[in-house]
Amino acid sequence: xxxxxxxxxxxxxxxxxxxxxxxxxxxxxxxxxxxxxxxxxxxxxxxxxxxxxxxxxxxxxxxxxxxxxxx
Length: 71
Description:
Blueprint: H1 2-5, H2 11-25, H3 40-50
Helix pairs in contact: 2-3
Organism: Trifolium medium
GO molecular function: methyltransferase activity
GO biological process, one term: methylation
C-alpha cells in the first residue's frame, strides 16, 4: 500500500513510481481507490504531482483518531 511504501527508504520516489505504474495499467475510466491513515494534504500532493488523476476525496471517521487506546 502507499502508506507502507512511504515508511521506507526513498519513500517519496518509490511512492511516485508506484502511482505512475498504477496510472499506466489502469484502463480508460479505471478507478484507483486509496485508503490511507495519512493526512489528506500530504496524500493529495503526491497524487497531484504524479499523474493527471481526477480526485474525489472522502474523509471517514475523524472521531476514530480521537478514540482512546485499549492498552
